[in-house]
Amino acid sequence: MTSKDELKARVCAEIDRQAERIVAFGDEIMRNPETGFREHDTARRVIKQFVDMGLEYRSGLAGTGVKARMPGRSRRRTVSILGELDSLLISDHPYADPGTGAAHACGHNAMAASMLGAGLGLQPVMDELDGDVVLFGVPAEECIELDWRMALREAGDLEFMLGKAELIRLGEFDDIDMALITHTEGAGDPLATMSGTANGSLIKRVRFVGRSAHAGNEPWSAVNASKALTLAVSAVDAQRETFRDSDMVRISHLITHGGEAVSAIPGAAEMEMMIRARTVEAMEDASRKVDRALRAGSVALGAEVEINTVTGYLPLVPDEPLVDVVDANSRDMLGDEHVLRHGGHLGSSTDVGDLGRVMPVAHPFAASGNDAPMHSNGYFVRDHVLAAVNPAKFMAMSAVDLLADGASGAEEVIRDSGPKLGRDDYVALRRRLDSVRRYRGDEE
Ligand SMILES: [Zn+2]
Ligand SMILES: [Zn+2]
Predict the structure, then answer these.
(1) How far is the centre of ligand 1, averaged over its atoms, from the C-alpha of 203 (Å)?
(2) pLDDT at 188
(3) Can you give the residue ranges of the Peptidase M20 dimerisation domain (predicted)?
């Protein structure tokens, strides 16, 4: 029997042989950015690679997702290697699409390339593995363009606002046992960071409705919706000291409508809010306090308030037994001194947190050659060898560890990662966090 080390050496040699193609693919996606659920062209580019590899694929999953299965010699377990497809919106980014403002300011182009690279490396050894590998290009990781996504939801085209959440709901992860996905990070060192937790989030779309009137002639006839909103924001701020540091609560708001003319007291005012926290319990606690603060604004002015709460991401807790596998391979490849095991807790979020509710996940980070803050107009992948070729290798080597020798590595990870939610329970959890509530401020 071929040893795992021998298989890994063959996998890495193949990835090296294909390195130029992997780098070129990452660069091609970077120059053709598309935002979530709109990645039609990006999906076509991934499909072209699958076709060149001779793989059968399924497409149009949750709109734009694409998935190809590479069968092993026996099919005991399935490991998926994921690549994001979507970009952000930053119109003054050097690689922004001039028409849409879409830009790869989160490095997801390299994630699509590392998925392809891992697939290219594993393809020649699949008939020596006891399980399948699924290459999965997944849409809409960034939680943006909410109005548009809400409209899709109201039209029945999607239920959840994020790609992986929607794909889980649709059953597209039912045939997968565990997932590996590598995000980009800073310039490096470290060249790779293995593990870190991340906040979950809830979105609120808030609308205050009062009564408009001439601001000079008869302001006494008005109910100022904008003042109800600003009072509510102050009440939210008064809550901030009640959050535990360890829960990492972040509450952000953006006033999207505050009135139309200074001579007319606004009869309606709107804002978007994002509430982030480290656990579902802390998300719910912060959400209750925010709702109370919103009602306070409505009571003070006698306005109505409608609060539409939509689940964003669930908190990320990577599965350490799976991270152990990726960690060992990264150290073999990059050297101990270039690999950081724990990256700490991130205030930001990812829908890999959602996936981690239903299966073991590892979500390492790889250097990008760029030290600018992520989501800024200066952040893009400068070095696709660091950001795509390296993770292609350590994810593919990990797949060998998981699936060779009767897939015993995968069995161990499943056994040691502890219980996961079934699809129905996961969907029920997200639906429980969603709500639409209306309060009248003038009720006694
Ligand atoms: Zn991002
Ligand atoms: Zn990202």
Answers:
(1) 16
(2) 84
(3) 205-296
Confidence of residue 1 (pLDDT cuts 50, 70, 90): low
- Which of 286, 312, 338 corresponds to the end of one domain? 312
Q: In total, how many domains does the chain have?
A: 2
The answer to whether residues 367 and 222 belong to one domain is no
- Strand spans (E) along 105-259: 131-138, 178-180, 183-184, 192-198, 200-209, 213-214, 250-257
CATH number at residue 215: 3.30.70.360
C-alpha 349 to ligand 1 mean position (Å): 8
Q: Which of 376-380, 397-401, 438-442 has the lowest mean pLDDT?
A: 438-442
Between the CA of 108 and the centroid of ligand 1 the distance, in Å, is: 8
- Ligand 1 (single-atom ion) residues, CB below 5 Å: 106
The reply to whether 421 falls in a domain is: yes
| Residue 439 lies inside a defined structural domain of this protein | no
The Cα angle at residue 338 between residues 135 and 182, in degrees rounded to 5: 20
| Residues 89 and 114 placed together within one structural domain of the fold | yes
**Are residue 212 and residue 74 in the same domain, yes or no?**
no
Q: Domain residues for 84?
A: 4-198+315-428
**Across-strand partners of 65?**
61
Q: How many Å lie between the centroid of ligand 1 and the Cα of residue 6? A: 36
CA of 316 to the centre of ligand 2 (A): 13
* Longest pairwise C-alpha distance within the chain: 90
- Point out the ligand nearest to the CA of residue 182: 2
**What's the gap in Å between 169 CA and the centre of ligand 2?**
21
For residue 75, what is the domain's CATH number?
A: 3.40.630.10
Give 230 Cα–ligand 2 centroid separation in angstroms.
32
What's the Cα-to-Cα distance from 192 to each of 130, 195, 379, 383, rounded to whole Å? Answer: 28, 9, 18, 14
